[in-house]
Amino acid sequence: MRLLVVEDDKDLNRQIVNALENAGYAVDKAFDGEEGLYLGETEPYDAVILDLGLPKVDGVAVLQGWRRAEKTMPVLILTARDRWSDKVAGFDAGADDYVVKPFHIEELLARVRALLRRAAGHATSELICGPVRLDTRASRVVVDGNPVKLTSHEYRLLAYLMHHQGRVVSRTELVEHLYDQDFDRDSNTIEVFVGRLRKKLGVEIIETVRGLGYIAAAAKA
What we know:
Blueprint: E1 2-6, H1 10-22, E2 26-30, H2 33-42, E3 47-51, H3 59-68, E4 75-79, H4 84-93, E5 97-100, H5 105-119, E6 126-129, E7 132-135, E8 140-143, E9 146-148, H6 152-163, H7 171-178, H8 188-201, E10 206-209, E11 213-216
Parallel strand pairs: 1-2, 1-3, 3-4, 4-5
Antiparallel strand pairs: 6-7, 7-8, 8-9, 10-11
Helix pairs in contact: 2-3, 6-8
């Protein structure tokens, strides 16, 4: 899953980005509203963490711009403002959740997981596909109760397919959602990761749909 963090405090931005990357996400960052507005309009993010008090363009205006452009990704707003009117303004602009500064990183991560889960139509933090269980909270994968060790890119690929279980996902979409802005993207590596995943999982839950992409589905009996 690919996220965007728009926060002008460089130390806080770095802390959030590091925590998200350690949790298995691909993350882009922006330090002002102008850059954040542009990235949110031009890149396909699964969710955005947006500060309200931004230079150049404030967070509410950024969010309004995204929604006018019909960008529907979930947005979690960060704010040092604790007045109810500021929270209402954020929600009315199109926010899905908010965290008031200062906050605990674990709470932020939990809220991001919840946003992604709801956006994909899942009720819990555990995704299940046949014998494969993926715990988004612990970034842990087990097959028939046995833990499977995956690289960060293998985990991202499996998590994205399982979040969108039952839907064909193209190679292009996978590339756009698995890698951050600075990564040297090559769609051919997707095939390599799929091959490795199939071997490590040992069960057939990732199907190739010729000419279209891949789909995560429970193996047929």
